[in-house]
Amino acid sequence: MTVTLGPLRIDPVTELDHWPFAPAELFPAVTPEELGDHRGDLDLSITTYLVRTPDQTVLLDAGNGNAKERPVLLAHHQFDTPYLDRLAAVGVVPEDVDVVVATHLHPDHCGGFTRLVDGAWDPTFPRARYLIPADEYAWLQEVHASAPEDGVAADLARTFEDSVLPVVEAGLVELIDLPYEVTDGVTLRSFPGHTSAHLIAELSGGGRHALASGDVLHHPFQFSNLALAQGGDADPAVAAESRRRLCELAVERDALVLPAHFGPGRIDRDGAGFRYRPIPWGGA
Q1: Which domains does the chain carry?
Q2: Which helix (H) or strand (E) holds 257?
Q3: What is the mean pLDDT of residues 226-239?
Q4: pLDDT digits (tens, 9 = 90+) for 55-69
């Protein structure tokens, strides 16, 4: 279902509806008190957002992509999802996309930059500008250049090789500094910590606001403890500060929050902290 912010139209395009993780795998320091009555895995999703403005079709995050070799990061390994069919279901084919933004260059956000065609990794969105913060690109390029043979770094190097480098070589990448205005109503802002140059997209129109928050937050558990680090946070202290900044901004703007890994909602103040109010997409 479509959310409208004045002239902006926003549709979620979900790559994976159910993406389970053991709580301690996702949040190494999570406590029984934070888990409460929850038992078993935490069920995440992978959701991207299609934003149509009067003059641009913008895709915020591109998902993990199919057929990617991620033998260390097995949760990202060898997907086979109908993501492009789901994109088509909201009226867009890859050639319609003008701009692709990754909130950061982890595999589940930029792997969909490319798809396997006749044994080669081709740009999925051949007419698009792929916007990547210069510092984020430099980080992943350095990981790749170090030629790691094992561990998480090896899968990150594979991500650069099969998902980022092909769009660079096709001349489709624009390295940007933040903040960056994509078009009227779509501004990219720096919210680092999960990675060094992680960004969010601030969306506005008709006096209404939304924040596509990427991996600033991974699960509603974090609202009760904004210091609760996700296992992939590059700088946990900076990531916690970005979570607080996002909450403050969402409250200030009364913004709809559009996370990558759980459902949309709004953030309310709760004493000295914050509380998340999930909203069904149709009611957003």
Answers
A1: 3-283 (3.60.15.10)
A2: strand 256-259
A3: 97
A4: 999 999 999 999 999
Tokens read off for 161: 């090789």
Residue 166's CB: how many other CB atoms inside 10 A? 19
Q: Give residue for tokens 């003059």.
A: 55
What's the Cα-to-Cα distance from 166 to each of 3, 18, 130, rounded to whole Å? 33, 29, 11
| Alpha-carbon distances of 211 from 22, 41, 51, 183, 217, rounded to whole Å | 27, 27, 12, 15, 12
Q: How many residues does the chain have?
A: 284
CB distance 26 to 229 below 8 Å? no
pLDDT digits (tens, 9 = 90+) for 177-229: 999 999 999 999 999 999 999 999 999 999 999 999 999 999 998 998 999 99
Per-residue pLDDT, 35: 84
Beta-bridge mates of residue 8: 5
Query: Letter for the amino acid at 120?
Result: A
Task: Give, as one character, the DSSP assignment of residue 69.
Answer: -
Q: pTM of whole model > 0.90?
A: yes
- Asked if 99 and 197 touch (Cβ cutoff 8 Å), the reply is no
